[in-house]
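Fold this complex.
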Amino acid sequence: TLGIFTVLAGPGIAADPLPAWNDSSAKQAVLGFVAKVTNEGSADFVPESDRIATFDNDGTLWVEQPIYTQLAFALDRLRSMAPQHPEWKTQQPYKSVLDGDLETLKTGGKHALEQIIAATHAGMTSDDFDKITSDWISTAQHPRFKRLYTECVYQPQLELLKYLRENGFKTFIVSGGGIEFMRPWTERVYGISSPQVVGSSIATEFQFVDGQPVLMRLPKVNFVDDKAGKPVGIGQHIGKRPILAVGNSTGDLEMLQYTTGGSGARLGLLVYHNDAEREYAYGPAGGLPDSKIGTFPQSLMDDATENGWIVIGMKENWNQIFPSVP
Amino acid sequence: TLGIFTVLAGPGIAADPLPAWNDSSAKQAVLGFVAKVTNEGSADFVPESDRIATFDNDGTLWVEQPIYTQLAFALDRLRSMAPQHPEWKTQQPYKSVLDGDLETLKTGGKHALEQIIAATHAGMTSDDFDKITSDWISTAQHPRFKRLYTECVYQPQLELLKYLRENGFKTFIVSGGGIEFMRPWTERVYGISSPQVVGSSIATEFQFVDGQPVLMRLPKVNFVDDKAGKPVGIGQHIGKRPILAVGNSTGDLEMLQYTTGGSGARLGLLVYHNDAEREYAYGPAGGLPDSKIGTFPQSLMDDATENGWIVIGMKENWNQIFPSVP
Ligand SMILES: [Ca+2]
Ligand SMILES: [Ca+2]
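Structure:
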């Protein structure tokens, strides 16, 4: 019944759906994959209900250097809470944060990080945490790019997300980051609604506070959506094996294995940060500097080759990194 | 740009979106609620992204008597597995199932049920369980109605789900039943896709089996999506407070409290099974027979009155119970 619009639109030349992608083999692989899974005449056709695409967030959809954005949030929040916690002036790991001494903070390892998450991410309702996160993300700026963190997202990926949805895909985030840290802004920034965000979480409990029914955030880990946890999170939240997965580090290995290990047409993509000038360069794959954040080791590069996953070097593949800001 | 279709369609009289609902106060409450939250001029307007509706499954969307459908599945599966487990002939709780002795089974309580779930729901991959469930649900019949369980769904609720989606709602299942027991058929039967199904689950683990990456189902409870677990499950999977929730028993109390405890327009609905002739009658609210399955106690009826939740007596409100079967 909408045929008339096609006629009115005329033949014309289809606009490039991925203008921020250079005309590389990676772009051709993406376009070719979408073309075959959406072509009913193709042996690789996939019905819409099975067109599931999962995207890692940190380093895949937005910048993760020099520190994860959620850690920047936690440190900012700790500093803003400090006046109510005079004891933090002498207690680690809080003291190192207040002193701006990230080297000492790092020596505290995982336990220190858990203490900081407990202090900054728990003890309030989900509704309150939503507001705290929303307020922070609407003003905090990236230290190098001097723009909002939500403006340090990758323009080529925004185009890819939109292109996939226009082709009947459901797009999901599957991130090691906090599910409730992402949800308040993913719809506005990525077009990905709250139920389509999968991430790590702390436990919540249904409680009445001042007579109001709320979900209270507890200082206790519920789920870690990283490495082998990513396929598990996909099973819990999506309940279908994706046909396309996009990541950028060792944390995404199992998600790509699970995705491309299914039968039929499958595609695995890995963003490779090799552009120090426009963004960052880190590996250590390919001889780039090693990074504890978003590590892309040579073994992952070898896995990509072996499994036919496409490695997207930022430098060669993307002609624009960030969206234009008004 | 679609104005032309409106003109072509002419003024006419809008078709009743809920024909299986009698013209009762319950129906008027539902229509009135949808009208006000979708009316941009209304003080109660809710943007589409916040139009979240959650439905319990057993006893709310389909029949739950004489036993939960998932228990019928577990018992059938146990019987079909028995030839490979000769020891079950003498071991409880398996023996009681094979003997058709549900009274003895009941004396085993929660532990017996866990053993049966472990034997029938774990030890295979998620993909294999999907196939096992799909095969069973496509042939198993309800003992009284002699039709597929998926045809023992409530026609008025199918209409309500569709009507809500047509008005920009996202519809979710939030059930105490097993999430992977429901997902293989909810899209076909209810129009609710797999990611929009929230339920109880057992733990899964990412493994390689014969070189294939799979999710293995473990004999270990992961999450119980019942009572105070329902708001928690909503938080995990949806990440927004619903504005409409529908249930039928004590297991839904906290979901309705959480839903209607938010600010702005909210609606809570409770199906009340008072129609022994066409379906079942159980409470014990209102003096109906007590039931361990889907208990609707007088206290829930009192909660409904106090909170303004609408109680939908099947007998008075629904002029058709099940869909017509071809
Ligand atoms: Ca990453
Ligand atoms: Ca129920």
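Residues 51 and 169 of chain B are 5 Å apart (CA to CA).
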